[in-house]
Amino acid sequence: MAAMREIFEAVNKNWAKGLTPTDYLTIDETLYSSRNRAPFIVFNKSKPAKYGLNFKSLNSVRATYTHRSHMYASRPEDVKNATSHYLTSTNDYVIYLLNHLIEESGSPDILVGRNLTCDRLYTDATLVKQLLTEFKITYVGTWQTNRKGFPAELVDFSKREAPSTEIFYEVNGPLRIVSYVAKGKQKKGATGKFSKSKCTTFLTTMEPYHGITRDDKKFKPHIAKVYDTTKYGTDLMDQRIARYSAKSKSNKWKNCVWYYMLDTTRVNSNTVFSKAVPGKYKTSFDFGVELGLSLMKPWIEVKPLIGLKSHVMSAAATVSGHPRYNQAIVADETGEQNLIRFGKKAESKLKCRDCLKECQGENYKINSRKIPSVFSQCELCGRIVCHKHHLVQMCISNCFSKLVDGTDV
């Protein structure tokens, strides 16, 4: 990751300053599709891409925006002299993302009063208390039974009814544990038979309500609904990235990191622009097209025309609409102006006359044989000219002198 570290951190700083985090945040993994032979390619069967680069990102839920991201780059060879970017545990990832967001945004209270939602990979009792005391952030997440600090009394739920909910409070502490047992699904082809019930345990520092939901007929507790509605921030970001991606096939992992930054920046800029100018772009595709054109047009309009092929200039004229690509104005002896069109190819290949003139002298026969034959010809006089000696299908040596001084071609 050292090859892309500097530019990756610079892009992350701009992300941190672009938008104020919303009241609900989430940290999750983004598996950016890549099958390169890099040592840190990750396999995850639950992700659509299966193989790819693993980015752990901090996202807003109410606005599709990535505030900070960190790429997993495997274990370094020299662990003792590793940089601060090497993280060993999921707790370190969470603290790393939050600290860098506070530092790069320039506001120490930017995360005060927010809520962070994570899955069972990041949930830990020590981390949850640290978030509340140091960052003033509440937490909601599922808790895995084999994690440190999980109560042994909640591991066995075979004697509990399904569906049912139990809430436990820490004595003189901020932790709340909500244990929910869901009824098993009915087996196919067997009436009245259900699979084993499953238990989901939530760890939170929010004050859970004692009510249950009835809309989905699963009688979920209140905290389960909070988790479901505040966990999708990263998943929504992944969907918008994958739908219109700038990614192309490449055997270099550094290019994949670059494509991830481009895609994420496009979605972030779309979110910021839609909040600043609501209603201008109805879809993400329209914004992406306008963004691409705004980046290309300034360079297309100043690019030299010498040596460009006709189909390249036709594409540039279609994209930019600039008159210098679809016409060139010349003045004849009567003062009338004629249009120079993109010409047709010659019937047979011949050698450029200007190139033959340049190689006159000693070893003319040997040098002239090295000159390639071309089809391109001048639109005014019909002479065969190579790409080096033509301008908008017009030969420089014979017809360029007819251009009016100062005319934009």
* Low-confidence runs of at least 5 consecutive residues: 328-344, 403-409
Radius of gyration: 32 Å
Largest sheet: 9 strands, mixed
Mean pLDDT: 81
N- to C-terminal distance? 45 Å
Care to count the β-strands? Answer: 13
Shape: elongated
Class from helix and strand fractions: alpha+beta
Order of secondary-structure elements: HEEEEHEHEEEEHHHHHHEEEHHEH
What's the tally of helices?
A: 12
Give the oligomer, counting copies of the same chain as homo and different chains as hetero.
single chain
| Fraction of residues in H or I helices | 25-40%
Assess the beta-strand content as a share of residues: 15-25%
Walk me through what this model shows.
With 409 residues, this protein is α+β, with helices and mostly antiparallel strands. 33% of the residues lie in helices and 17% in strands. It contains 12 helices and 13 strands. The chain has helices at 5-18, 90-105, 125-134, 222-230, 233-243, 253-276, 284-302, 310-320, 323-326, 353-358, 364-369, 396-399, and strands at 24-33, 42-43, 51-60, 65-71, 115-118, 138-142, 164-169, 176-182, 198-204, 329-331, 337-339, 350-351, 373-374. The strands form 3 sheets. Strands 1, 2, 3, 4, 5, 6, 7, 8 and 9 form a 9-stranded mixed beta sheet that branches. β5, α3 (125-134) and β6 form a beta-alpha-beta unit. α1 packs parallel to α6 (253-276) and α5 (233-243) crosses α6 (253-276). The chain starts with a helix and ends in a 10-residue tail after the last helix. The model is unreliable at 328-344 and 403-409 (pLDDT under 50).
